[in-house]
Amino acid sequence: MKPTIDHADVAVVGGGPVGALAALGLARAGRKVVLVETRARRAPIHDARALALSWASRQRLEEEGAWPATLPATPIDVVHVSQQGACGRTVLSRQDLGLPHLGLVADYAALTAALNARLEEAGVTVLWESRVTAVKSLARYAALEVESAGQRAALTCRLAVLAEGGALAETLPGIRRSVHDYRQCALLAPVTFEAPQTGTAYERFSLDGPFALLPYGDGYMLVWTRSPEEAAALSGDADMLKVAIERAMGGRLGAVTHTGPCAVFPLVLKEVNRVVSGRVVLIGNAAQTMHPVAAQGLNLGLRDASGLIEAVAGSPDPGSPEVLSGYAARRRLDSRAVVGFTHSLIQLFDGHDALSQWLRGTGMNLLDVVPPLRRAFASHLVFGVGQR
């Protein structure tokens, strides 16, 4: 579709869950919003990721009408954290916070389809099969160059929101992106065991690398951090994968009865030094891309979108320095704390000597037996740091 809109209050670049939520919330608040997305409107979404959404994220999506009752999702009621080969565990429960569930697991494709339908229902203008090739911030507006069907057009707005993980942010004055390559991959595969799935998510720090088993339908979705070579070998050999999972779980769920198709993703931490440049603000993957060990990346991005919606509410100029500096200040603690916590987990559980294992085990046991600590920790995971 050739772009036919030349000006908007807000232009959102990137139609993933974070960008779509931002567009919906800003449009509901009465802003004229244009969303620019590279995908075709009806194109099938081929993405193997299962998303672990906190209960707070699920509620925020429902508020925008983007969580239909028909959306397939598997509840997480308990999170069981342990380490292989040593004592120590922490068990978090929905009862700790008095919630119906701690979270839910949904397919990326299903959630994105629900958001697409809601965007259409809400009448949000979406430029499908389009990409922003340049962005510039001026005193009174931001200017975007949009390419679609081989043609280029200018789109101006009072606020530009980057919600994609591309290189646009690095062209902005004052924005620098730091990158840490973990030299690891995430191996994803649906798995079933002899024991039935009961709503418990397992976060296991195994000798071969941290992994999560997320409740997923009648079984689980495995997310295992391995070296690129190990991930490639395991993804190509179902029997080898079954043996490795059973060894890492220590028989807790019995034998693995089935593994489905595997997917492998490289793991890199990316973080910008600031999230605002003039009239451009960065949210979600544009601001930070994280290791999946604590399943916090998407939840953090959705809180970015919600925070931006709240920050611009009632302001005559959504891209004013006062609005955006206020947004950045309010999001700083949550973002830095979650990124730092996730990154430190990888380093903390990297050592497997006796002293390291004992210290980790002692910390997990302490968290488990002191209810105020356990509730505070669970609240940070579900609602964000300093957000509730």
UniProtKB/TrEMBL annotation:
By its UniProt entry, which InterPro entries does this protein fall under? Answer: FAD-bd, FAD/NAD-bd_sf, UbiH/COQ6, UbiH/COQ6_monooxygenase
Keyword Oxidoreductase: yes or no?
Answer: yes
Annotated FAD-binding domain ranges read 8-341
Q: In which pathway does it act?
A: Cofactor biosynthesis; ubiquinone biosynthesis
Cofactor(s) required, per the database record: FAD
Q: Which domain of life is it from?
A: Bacteria
**Pfam families under this entry?**
FAD_binding_3
Keyword list (alphabetical) reads: FAD, Flavoprotein, Monooxygenase, Oxidoreductase
**Family stated for the protein in its record:** Belongs to the UbiH/COQ6 family.
| Protein's UniProt name | 2-octaprenyl-6-methoxyphenol hydroxylase
Organism (species): Gulbenkiania mobilis
